[in-house]
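Troubleshooting entry. The earlier prediction with ribulose-5-phosphate gave an output that would not parse, so I re-checked the input for stray whitespace and re-submitted. Clean input:
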Amino acid sequence: MEWGMANRMAQLIQSDGHCLFLPVDHGYFQGPTRRLEEPRKTLEPLLPYADAIFITRGVLRSSVEPDSAKPIILRVSGGTSIIGKDLANEGITTSIEEAIRLNVAAMGLSIFVGSDYEHESLLNLSKLVDEGEKYGIPVMAVTAVGKELEKRDARYLALCCRIAAELGARVVKTYYCEEFEKVVKGCPVPIVMAGGPQVDTELEVFEFVYDGIQKGAIGVNLGRNVWQNDFPVAMIKALRAIIHENATPKAAQELYDSVKSGKQQ
Ligand code: 5RP
């Protein structure tokens, strides 16, 4: 691996082989998502605990100080909205020159396997990988399902992840699911887990993150289940403990409760 690519991958994946990415890119198709209405306010308390942030260029420029040393995964696909015809009809929205100017650690793009725009989104990925590889910038593929959340089973996600890896993604972001080990087994590049809509309890999040890591995911790219929680700092600290210290879900819950009640910072 070239030095630049290796250096960027090392910025993303920590020396223990794990990572906690914090996505705040949701506005690119959802607009002002709940508790991300003012991205700077959402981000500021959480930034110290994230290994990298997943963000569009607009929110990066407006809401993150350039002297922040936090690695950036730049969201470079879009062109659709939640009220439009089809969320899968994405294009590449940001040039490689812009990614270089913004000094990013990686670029992220969604693929929509099985959708009417499968072909376009997979070619978008291939083109982005070609551009990224020229300059040593890794691509994270996002296995997106649009509004069809029920698609998230092991057979489908294994297909998406494998295709993303075959087309050259250096990291794949996918959903946790039952039989998650099958998804990991079939994907020759590292997998990070997304959360999806906020679930009912913190413990559910700790349990799936813990289980996913045991089954081979290297970490998370978890947004709403962190910053839509009433105590986002407690949440991200507890997740860090699972990801970087191998804490059990029970220990993570205790840490969450203790930070929440102010007993621990
Ligand atoms: C939005 C994304 C998000 O980065 C991804 O879905 C992770 O966020 P969450 O945990 O909130 O699902 O790709 O398009």
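This one parsed fine. DSSP finds twelve helices and ten strands in the chain.
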